[in-house]
Fold:
Amino acid sequence: MIALVTGATGFVGSQLCKGLIENGFAVRAFHRERSTTRALNGVTASRIMGDILDCDSLRRAMRDVDLVFHVAARADYWRTDHPQLKRVIIEGTHNVLKIGRELNIKRVIYTSSLAALGVPPKGELLTETHRFNETEKRWGYGFAKHCAEQEVLQAVEDGLDCVIVNPSAVMGAGDLNQIGGALIVEMARRRLAVTPSGGMNVVHIADVVRGQIAAATDGKVGERYIIGGENIWHRDLFRLIAQEIGTTPPRVVLPSALVNFVANITDAFSFLPLPINGSALRQSTQQFFCDSSKAQHDLNLPAPLSAQQAVREAVTWYRSQKVF
Structure:
């Protein structure tokens, strides 16, 4: 089968290309002309340049393929201008789906995000039944991913076979653009002064790739599947990262009561190259824990790898690349 991967030069996209080839697929790697292609070094995929905002280039890339893995997006929302982020995520997804219908693509697998499910009530694990419950102003990235999912669900109603996967925070070797690995790099460079009070779910890149491929073969039309790993408090994750790097974690925990104040100051200085913006800081106090049992059951996935393994492999890779 021929599979097209959008966003093929990114962390998830490039690793997915490798995983698909290992599973016998012929792969087309779709990426922008100006994208750095280092992540695809040694990958035997045919490369097609274009842009998900350019329907003509998308149409050329999608012609005669069986599956489309739509991975392209802007995940670095703490670095990205909001209007452009929205356009890439929402309009880009709309274009992929529109052309998918035109060309009768057998299945589109949309790589969304845990962020599209919103903020869980205190003490609850996020599941596929949760719905986005934040405002666009407070969390533009989550809102954009939520809107893109609505485009997917509308396409399903219109007759296109689509499945959604929702990875949590992805870590592991190969994160060239430092998305999930940003925490690791910032700590290694001693740019993290405090530990936020919340928690997150860390998923190994290998589990994400397994989940995407399984969704293509075993996922049910119109369903979403959380691809998660280990739920971990920030203080424990920071301690684990510091241990793997050989440094000390931030000693100060930022009280939730101060977060809005600090976030507002951060937004005021957004013109500086800060490691985090106000939106990400506000979300860092939440407990973004999730339950990925639906994906494990329906997609026949193995138990996820640990956060420690994901961090350890990321640290080893960054060192091999002389990032720190």
